[in-house]
Every structure is written in structure tokens, then in C-alpha cells.
């Protein structure tokens, strides 16, 4: 919209003030849904919330050319709707990062998401500028990115997953390892030695230089650095379907 707004204003007679209102109206919607999106993502899973948001912003993107032709009010409503849809994206993504990524790798995951968002702008802005001056005109910007959003939404619905236990694209061992890492973080805090264990190890060893004793109930007692015992059952002895409560 930042690229197309001048052409839209010229075609439909929107002055500078009205163009500013159209641009700003996106944020009226965007500030409403982030907290709601995060709450719903934690309750229902990030996949469903992100998919819903993507469908909403895709529909409003495709409707933007028609709304702009219908008048200022409709253009503003469309932009608010776009903001409402996009507002849930980052909360849903961060919820899934918490479910998918072991604590020792979450900073890199968040940084990657942020970098990719800026990469999208690097690609989208020159592409939009080229489309504005092309024979297809400014409307093609919204048709192109709306279509891409629709295709992405379909792919996400098929392949996306809120957490490892609901994914069909990873093995049971991979899912178990992710859950084991989360379990270790819960027990040992930010013990980097425990969090960085190789993926093939399913039971912790030498955590905090502690002593481990296995009893007949398959519980492991770890003597922590402050001398207090910690009892837990290794995830390798628990069926995968029973570990979803850890997410």
C-alpha cells in the first residue's frame, strides 16, 4: 500500500490527508489483535490462529482495489481488516517457537523470523514498484500478493503443525528429543550443558556434575549443584502421545 497509495490517490482523487488516513488505518486494526492472538494461540495452537489470520489478511488484500474504488470509508475498513488479520501473526509464530524450539535455540529462531520479515520487505517493495509502473498497474500488487497469501494458507493448512506431537513431517524420535529438551529445561533451568546434548541421547548424564541413581520405578534422581535432589521420569520411557502436556 505504501507504494500504491500515490497511484490510488491520483486515480480516485484522494488528497494527501486522506491518503495518510488510509495508510494509518492499518495500525488501528493491528494494535487490537496481538494480545488476543497470543492468548488464543496458547489455548488452541498457533497453527489455527496463524491460518485464520492469513485468510483474513489475504481476503482484505484481494478486496483492496475494489474498496479503494468504492470510496474512502471502504478503503479504511479494508485496511483495518488487514491489520486485524496480520496482528495475530507474530504472537502465533512465537507461540509455536515455544512449542517447537528447544530453549537453547529459541533466540536464533526468533532472529530468523525477524530477519525473514525484513527480507520479505526487501523483495516486496521493489516488486511492487515495478508493478505500479507496468501495464498491469497498481491493482496487480494486491492481486499478486493476495494470490500468494491464498496459496500459502492452503500449504500451511496441509503441512503446518502447532507442536511436534501433531506434526506428520518429523519422526517420533525427533519429536521425543524436542520434548526431552523442554523437559530438561524445566528441571535444570538454563543448564547449557544439558540443553546441548546430542540428539541421540535420551537420558541425561552428568548434569551439573551430579550423581544419578535409577530406581525400580524408572525415576532418576539428580543431585543438583546446591545439594537438593530432583526426581523425574525420563521421557524415553513415556509414550509420545502422553507427553503432549509438556507443550
From TrEMBL:
InterPro entries in the record: MFS, MFS_dom, MFS_Na/Anion_cotransporter, MFS_trans_sf
Record's keyword terms, sorted: Membrane, Transmembrane, Transmembrane helix
Primary location: membrane
Keyword set includes Transmembrane: yes
Superkingdom in the source lineage: Eukaryota
Transmembrane domains' residue ranges: 20-37, 49-77, 109-133, 140-159
Record's GO cellular component terms: membrane
UniProt-annotated location(s): Membrane
Membrane topology: Multi-pass membrane protein
Entry annotated with the keyword Membrane: yes
Major facilitator superfamily (MFS) profile domain: residues covered: 1-247
A single GO molecular function term of this UniProt record: transmembrane transporter activity
Name by which UniProt lists this protein: Major facilitator superfamily (MFS) profile domain-containing protein
Organism in which the protein naturally occurs: Linnemannia gamsii
Amino acid at each position: 500500500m505504501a507504494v500504491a497509495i500515490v497511484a490510488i490517490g491520483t486515480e480516485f482523487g484522494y488528497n494527501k490527508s486522506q491518503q495518510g488516513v488510509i495508510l494509518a488505518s492499518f495500525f488501528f486494526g493491528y494494535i487490537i489483535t496481538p494480545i488476543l492472538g497470543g492468548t488464543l494461540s496458547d489455548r488452541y495452537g498457533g497453527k489455527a490462529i496463524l491460518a485464520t489470520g492469513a485468510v483474513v489478511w489475504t481476503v482484505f488484500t484481494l478486496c483492496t482495489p475494489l474498496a479503494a474504488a468504492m470510496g474512502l470509508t471502504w478503503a479504511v475498513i479494508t485496511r483495518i481488516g488487514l491489520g486485524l488479520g496480520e496482528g495475530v501473526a507474530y504472537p502465533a509464530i512465537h507461540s509455536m517457537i515455544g512449542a517447537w524450539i528447544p530453549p537453547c535455540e529459541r533466540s536464533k529462531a526468533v532472529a530468523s523470523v525477524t530477519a525473514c520479515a525484513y527480507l520479505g520487505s526487501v523483495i516486496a517493495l521493489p516488486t511492487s514498484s515495478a508493478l505500479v509502473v507496468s501495464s498491469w498497474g497498481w491493482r496487480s500488487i494486491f492481486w499478486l500478493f493476495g494470490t500468494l497469501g491464498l496459496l500459502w494458507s492452503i500449504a500451511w493448512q496441509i503441512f503446518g503443525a502447532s507442536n511436534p506431537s501433531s506434526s506428520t513431517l518429523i519422526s517420533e524420535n525427533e519429536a521425543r528429543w524436542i520434548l526431552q529438551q523442554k523437559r530438561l529445561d524445566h528441571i535444570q533451568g538454563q543448564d547449557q550443558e544439558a540443553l546441548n546434548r546430542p540428539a541421540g541421547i535420551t537420558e541425561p548424564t552428568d548434569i551439573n556434575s551430579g550423581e544419578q541413581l535409577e530406581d525400580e520405578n524408572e525415576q532418576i534422581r539428580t543431585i543438583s549443584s546446591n545439594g537438593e535432589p530432583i526426581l523425574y521420569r525420563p521421557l524415553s520411557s513415556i509414550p509420545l502421545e502422553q507427553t503432549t502436556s509438556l507443550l
